[in-house]
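Q: What would this chain look like folded?
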Amino acid sequence: MPPIRKYCREDIIKTTYELVQKEGLGCVNARRIAKQLGCSVQPIFHNFTTMEELIKEVHHRIYEKYKEYLLSGRDQPNAYKKIGLSYIQFAFDYPEFFKILFMKETTLDAEDFLMADVLGDHIIKSGQTLTGLSYEEQKKFHIKVWIFTHGIACLVATRTIQFSKEEIDELLGRTVLEMLEGYKKLMEEENEICS
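A: My prediction, written as structure tokens:
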């Protein structure tokens, strides 16, 4: 009789992560994971008290992959633009992961949503290097930039529109600069009115 294979926590997490990457979170249940592993559901519940515990582990790995993408260009001179491009690239490379992280219902407003991300503060500071705005001004400006960038990322993640990397680079770069120009002009006009 061949030896019985024992499945460790890491095997189960890795298999679940791969299933979610290919098919989305809706595919995750103990039977589907067990089938992929070639075992019964017993090893899953031996290693995890609940499916929620397993999903939490997988969610953590998904977020770490996202962080890896966003932080890849943090030390480059054009870090702010690189972060936006990385966000869109993550949506292209990992559409199911992007949907899990950024295309779900919440009760947060835009600022709270951005600041709930541990990278939010880092992204705002990277933007200040480009814009020269104060932290609070940059936060307000970044919300506008993020909404635009998020729109492109959603189109990419859902494969609604096919963009080339060059088109995305041009669109993001030019539009953010135009937005910055308009934002600064508006701030100047508001300052004149208040003086």
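DSSP finds ten helices and no strands in the chain.
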